[in-house]
Design goal:
Layout lengths: L8 H4 L9 H4 L11 H6 L1 H9 L3 H18 L10 E2 L8 E7 L6 H4 L2 H8 L4 E5 L11 H7 L9 E4 L10 H8 L16 H10 L8 H8 L16 E5 L2 E5 L10 H10 L6 E5 L4 E2 L2 E2 L10 H5 L6 E6 L5 E7 L5 E7 L28 E3 L2 H16 L10 H12 L13 H10 L10 H9 L8 E8 L3 E9 L3 H5 L2 E10 L5 E5 L8
Parallel strand pairs: 1-5, 2-3, 3-4, 6-7, 7-10, 10-12
Antiparallel strand pairs: 2-14, 5-6, 8-9, 11-12, 11-13, 14-15, 15-16, 16-17
Amino acid sequence: MSAPSRSSKAGAGWGCRELGEFAELAPMGNPFSWLRPGPLISSRNDLLAKWFGDPTNDMRREWLRRLDAYAQEAGQQPPARDRLVTRFADRDRISVAVLGDPGEGDASQYVVVPVLQRVAADADFGVVCSDVIYPAGGVRTYEGGFYRPYADVPFPLYALPGNHDWYDGLTGFMTAFCDAPPDAGAPSFEGSGPVWKRLLRKLLWRSPPAATAEDVADMRWYRDAESQQAGQPGPYCAIDAGPVRLVLIDTGMVGGIDAEQAEWLRAVSEGGRPTILLTGRPIYTYARLQQSPIEGGGDVNEIVTDPAYNYIAVIGGDDHNYQRYPVRLRDGRTVQYIVAGGSGAYLAATHQIPNVDRLAPAVFEEGFRCYPLRGDSLAHFSRRYDKVLRFGSGRLAISPDDATTLMASRIGIVPPRPGSAVVSRRAIRAADKVFPLPAKGTDAAHNFMSLLFDTDGVPQFKSFLRLDATADEVVISCWAATGCREHEQEPVMEDRVRATRQPDGRWTWASETPGRPVP
């Protein structure tokens, strides 16, 4: 195992000597790019939902009704109301791979595969956490963004939809994961609000691209082994994973859940075993608490923090990097809030994450972890800004050593690894220009930043999680995918945190990476 980026620049992938196997696996031709007008136009439902009203809740209800009808037509039993996957329930121990926001279908997605095969090939199953597909769903896009990249991943893959998976009305997702017929079409909706809004939304709304049963058969050929088959009872479901229960929720296009899903969430979260929530919208990200509202009132985090439900961790996608916040609750418990959206989509900057002590007494900077490190993020984006905005002149480029020192000084932290003893004036001026530029891939900056500053160059700073659990212990590890061949052969573990069950039944967390142990 290679040293992590907190120990050395080499561990971060700076000075990479040889590209990894991913370069041979990724399809030839033009990589996915938001520079083309097609992806932007096909993603328009996101803006329409925000401007004219989000139909996700109504469409989700119709999808669940359809699943019941499909089962009855086939002479099968409709999915149980608990939407519970029980095939792993009898395991004494479990291993799960978690991939977040992977589906670009180019080198930035394939770079994860060799490392995944090396460190998690023995996993019992995997979960794709948010945005299986870019840019806007569609049944046939799942071939290049899901089936083909993971053709040799031996275990079954479950998923929860992200906002991009909803841009086709969830038709592609429901076909790929819930066995809905590909020609079913997206549910119709009326919505609420003024008539002019409803008419305008209906006029501009993107309908899902057509697909046939033959298209689906061709895609599934890539993952047709019996060991790879999953099948799940809806866009939200729970998986009894031996010692733990994983709860997958569907937060739609704008980050909330419907009232029926909330009722299900409370019911399925009951029980004695430790519970882990997986969501398309992270609850803590960029050093702030993010709302995940429930239709009719309330918030998902109220369920997570209720001691009756025994949640020990929350894993969310959407932001394309790794962040971990050990949040200490008022009753003394600690819940790990993890952002795990770094498995394929364009990188979202971490250098814009402020000092996490601002969240005290809930979280402390010494317990917080992110990947890439803030300094590596600044160095990475400075090179991209320099290439795009300064035509590669080097005036905006900042070295990893200088960036490490500059970021530590800027936000008042101890450098996570040694940086420059003296930073040049040129680097300081460059940082003053680079730092305030938007680089976080959400909200209004989303399309602008992705089309200008996305890159498949090494180091890529991609990542995924491995979760291992027994009756008395839960371990969550973050593994890096830099794109360097040496890191495919000797992978880099960037972070690991371990929960241990105490005699009184409580779970306590401890970090196994440099820094103060998690409270």
